[in-house]
């Protein structure tokens, strides 16, 4: 999976030094990271849910967040497009940058941010509207389209990219909620990519799906890699191993280890990571 | 030995089976009680409806007398190019139409004849002539409303001396109860033969329009603001408690409020649907706010998240997703609130809507009364004719309520969506 990436990643060491402004030991030959998080803390009221997490998100590969339930991986994911703003008690400190811009800066428009950093949720949540309207909604509210033909084009393109076009092209007017669970989740992915985001955050996108639907979503994630930065939170270590090139292991609100997926699974540096991966807990 | 072990298990003992029987028995009892409750409510409803229909249908009829009138000899003419019906009727009155009718009645029924025909019968004839002037060149047999006394006598009531005459006329086929279309077109009157429900019905419609136009948008906006935008703090808690209390305030208090506030601001609009509607809107709004907040709370957060995650602004989330999904619930609350407002009399008593109003209201500022108030006023009358008219008015009120709720339920089902 990472044959071309011969360099080693020593993110764990870098992260043990939270004051570091960059991940100094990372020497992988890739471009600038799309998103950069540094010393991010997330609080719910006074309770610290995320403790000083630093990580880079690249467009070139899929990043997986793994860890036991309640370890904060979803909380951190929601900090990346400010979905935590909807929870009044949630507070984020530290710095998260998208293309070098601080997304928590006062000049950052949250509506625009979420158009650039899309999200797919654990439970498929298509709008109770037609399949067509589900896809057309995003481009329409952002004014990305002028004419009916533009919308038709975007709808078809998004559904094709999400691998759903062949299945639904004859029933675009049917309700999105009438689809099967796996189709609904691909519809939600199509809805997210219809606004051409730069990063897509996926919060356990397959946890409500059967193995066949899961396989389709995983295939889709692999196809979308490179075009969009993809971050996936998953409970399934096999899934992380299958779809991601970088893996971050979270435990009790902090990021224990980050590195090449192959390294994390075959040669973890931290004992906690090894215990989790070998099934001691979680 | 294994058989022995089987029978010894706790779920295979006779005691367990006895308990099981008891459990089934209690379920059966519960089912019977529930069915009984349903049957009782249905029976009460059916009794009410049948009772209303039987006694109310008579209210849509009135006793009328067949009187032949020969217009060829009367020398009446219709003015050229009349502005409206009223002008024609006035012209005919000046030319002596009332006397023509009295004369015809005396011809047909003897000297007392004129007294048996209703005083206002000539006006109805005038209205018929206005729509069909060719009547003036014909001999016609007209069914005219009788006097109140003859009507009571025909019903086997009232003046005993008139009863044989009524019986005789009925046997000749000259006196009968005929369907009274005018009941649905006229307004209140002192004579039960001449009353109509349209005045009160139109008053109710106008009042409900004002109530809906004020209570629905204000209620929905308040519910949306409280649920979606308001910070959760002591002030919003206080507002929530106040709204809940407002929904429980006795309606007559709202009448006093309408009297003290609205009539102080608009002193010229006593008895007007505008003021009535404003008063009832105060009463209906809290119901809509409470139902609206519950409906908004019931919208799944995943839909909000989905919309926010593709970059919908908060107001787009509210108007594109939350409101359409909450609308069926909001409409249910609106139905309940409006149905209550439609049947309300107490607050309207205080702002003067119990006045005797003999003409249907022209607009939102004319004097008017409403259906429940009309029922209350008529049920207070001593004349026998009003008893049936009251039942008929109740039927009109129920039908109006049914239509209003039917429309709301139709709208609700149209907006209902599954997720």
Automatic annotation (TrEMBL), chain B:
Keywords: Cell membrane, Membrane, Transmembrane, Transmembrane helix, Transport. It is found in: Cell inner membrane; Cell membrane. The chain crosses the membrane at residues 30-50, 205-226, 246-266, 272-296, 317-339, 392-411. It holds the Pfam family DUF3333. It is a multi-pass membrane protein. Residues 201-408 form the ABC transmembrane type-1 domain. InterPro entries: DUF3333, MetI-like, MetI-like_sf, Phosphate_PstA. It comes from the Bacteria. The keyword NAD does not apply. Belongs to the binding-protein-dependent transport system permease family. CysTW subfamily. This is Phosphate transport system permease protein PstA. The lineage of its organism: Bacteria, Pseudomonadati, Pseudomonadota, Alphaproteobacteria, Sphingomonadales. The gene is pstA.
